[in-house]
Design goal:
single chain, 4-stranded antiparallel beta sheet, 5-stranded parallel beta sheet, alpha/beta, Threonyl-tRNA Synthetase, Chain A, domain 2, 10 helices, 11 strands, Rossmann fold
Amino acid sequence: MKKWIVFSDLDGTLLDRDYSWHKAALAVQVLREAGIPLVLNSSKTLAEMREIRAELGLDSVCIAENGGVIEGLEGAPTGGGSVRDDLVALAGQLREEEGFQFEGFVDWEVEQLMEMTDLSREQAVNAMKREATEPIVWLDTADRLLVFERLLRKQGVKVVRGGQFRHLMRADRDKGSAMQEVLGWYRKRDDAEWASVALGDSPNDWPMLERADVAVQIPRREGAGEWLEGAHVRRGCLPGAAGWNVAILDFLREVREEIYR
């Protein structure tokens, strides 16, 4: 029998602008009652996501920092701080040598991040506890960004565009590769056919959505932007938690016989 597992982005997908998931509470509850794991897959840090997972009542695996860190799998990447330190050092060196104009979390105080994101102090402090990525705001030209990205690629680093920030991270990690690792772990543990549903709204979610069996692209409040193509891709009807709720409930109605037989 096929088993399903849901992978979900947070900001702009399961979470609204005020960081609330309550408009998706019904779908979260139905997933729990159906025994379907919900794995959060976000650019947020583990410190941020532990609090959110506690609110949601989740005890499943967790993917943080755009796939750079996985909690709950033995042998999975953990970051440990050294990866982020290397990224910060490399970016700082390029900024000094080439004169690139950008700012990152390493440059800001907690108060600045709070002002930019509307996070509470505790949330902002947790957001700064990064292990494997460094979010930046690009203040230079588009052409200069291409040069910056090219120089980073030579060092095995990439720039991933999220909802509000661009994220520097190892080139061999993304949300899709982390999702595949988690699926592999579930399949090995249970010797079962696990299939994936993934929900996201930003370019850093594309690797996850592209590899999922069923993908839901949640529309962004400021406009749809780029829509993914593919027979497995669905377009959400509403932004944020309300759209997530509808998408999950619609999917569960479709696979009801598989789940409850």
